[in-house]
Write a structure and sequence with these properties.
Strand 2 and strand 3 form a beta hairpin. The protein has a four-stranded antiparallel beta sheet. The chain is elongated. Among the domains are: 91 residues, no CATH class; 159 residues. The protein is an alpha+beta fold. It contains twelve helices and four strands.
């Protein structure tokens, strides 16, 4: 049975047979790595680290709602946008004189793309960043890192200064607009209120007193109308009844002293009562008085109806006066409401105006503080001339070459062993036949 021990022996024998390949191949790869290191031009890396102090160190307003929008995080977010911009790369080309030999736009575009790959940015936390620049010249690598960092700081401060100036100008324009609007609304509100108040007939207290007086008069007229209608009702009832003492009962219900022909009727009724106590119904004097009473009573309805018409007309006139007073009160209320609305709108715009003044002062303070914002950029590590190249990494290249050589050597040895058809022992014979003789190597 073919055991693991036999496999190990076979591998050992194969390695012994192919030791030349396994030794020569790594040596060749190692030599190729050395040759590559000789021909590859080294690149140097120079870095500078800049810290951005937080705004509360210069601007105490960041502790309140009036905080400015000039934070360190914003600067770091725009780091790559500025560093990798075309203007930054062109500045770097002009400063380091890298455009010598550039004849076409395509070559310059390729140079810009290559330089962008040689710049590396890295944020350290939230308040610092590192800028690295690779170049074949160590001095130029140092100068490039310094130029990029300084350009970023100057460009960022310029952008922030312009933003602060635009913010101040914006708030100033809005403040002027609001001031004009507030003054115009104040004048309009005063003029409209004064004009409408002058057109009103009375003030609300006089209107209220007049309304109460009219309502009292209307109630009095209504009561008097009811009385006159009741008087008329009794007269009509008297006229419908037959002759006799009983028919006079309706007349006794009337306030004879308050109605027209009442006194005359009262005198006749008294005479009738005196004669009635002495004589019977058939007495000619009683009949004569009864006819006179009826004649006087028949004249009374016309007077009552005239009074009713007069009272109703007067009541209607009072009702119209009441409607006019109520209309005046409603108009006064509406004018007052509009005046209050005008004042409310004026108060709103005045509040916006005051708030805009505060924001303008904040913007001015932010602008003034921004002029000193350069103090927030602190260079922690200045760019220095590198003593050793950053690439290529000789140890890494040689290690990779040696590893590749070993892998290729083992693979080549395995392939050579598989492709080898030499018969070395009985197991290599593909036919199951007995061995007759062996051929010696000697």
């Amino acid at each position: 049975m073919y055991e693991i021990k036999d496999v190990a022996q076979d591998i050992k024998a194969a390695a012994k047979r192919r030791r030349a390949i396994m030794i020569v191949t790594p040596i060749l790869f190692l030599m190729a790595g050395l040759a590559a290191l000789y021909y590859i031009e080294p690149e140097y890396k120079s870095s500078t680290t800049v810290m951005v102090e937080r705004d509360e160190t210069l601007n105490p307003l960041v502790l309140y709602d009036m905080a400015v929008n000039m934070t360190s995080d914003d600067r770091l977010k725009s780091l790559n946008d500025i560093v990798y911009s075309r203007s930054t790369i062109e500045m770097l080309i002009d400063s380091l004189k890298l455009d010598s030999g550039i004849k076409s736009k395509a070559e310059k575009q390729q140079l810009i793309a290559n330089l962008q790959e040689k710049i590396v940015t890295h944020s350290r936390g939230s308040d610092s960043f590192e800028i690295s620049y690779y170049d074949k010249d160590p001095v130029r690598a140092r100068n490039g890192a310094e130029l990029i960092a300084n350009h970023f700081i100057k460009r960022k401060l310029k952008l922030e200064t312009r933003r602060h100036e635009e913010t101040v100008a914006f708030f100033q324009n809005k403040l002027d607009e609001l001031e004009t609007r507030v003054d115009r609304q104040r004048d309009q509100a005063d003029n409209i209120t004064t004009q409408r108040m002058e057109n009103l007939p009375n003030d609300p207290e006089v209107l209220q007193e007049r309304l109460q007086s009219i309502e009292g008069q209307i109630e009095d007229m209504q009561w008097r109308i009811i009385q006159q209608e009741e008087y008329l009702m009794h007269i009509r009832a008297f006229q419908k009844q037959p002759n006799g003492q009983e028919s006079f009962e309706e007349l006794y219900k009337l306030p004879l002293s308050d109605i027209q022909f009442g006194e005359e009727l009262s005198t006749l009724l008294n005479q009738y009562e005196d004669l009635q106590q002495q004589y019977t119904e058939n007495y000619p004097g009683l009949r004569t008085l009864s006819e006179k009473i009826k004649q006087v009573a028949n004249r009374i309805p016309a007077g009552i109806e005239s009074n009713l018409k007069r009272l109703k007309n007067y009541k209607n006139d009072l009702t119209r006066q009441k409607s006019q007073v109520v209309n005046n009160m409603q108009q006064y209320y509406m004018v007052n409401q509009r005046a209050q609305s005008q004042k409310s709108d004026h108060s709103i715009y005045e509040g916006l105006y005051n708030e805009m003044r505060v924001k303008l002062e904040q913007a001015k303070m932010t602008r003034d503080i921004g002029k000193k914002a350069a103090d927030q950029f602190i260079v922690l590590d200045e760019a220095v001339i590198p003593a050793k190249p950053a690439s290529p990494n000789k140890r890494l290249v040689l290690a990779i070459s040696l590893l590749l050589g070993l892998i290729v050597g083992v693979a080549a040895s395995a392939l050579a062993e598989v492709m080898d058809t030499t018969l070395r022992d009985d197991d290599d014979i593909p036919y199951n036949k007995p061995v007759i003789a062996y051929i010696s190597n000697e």
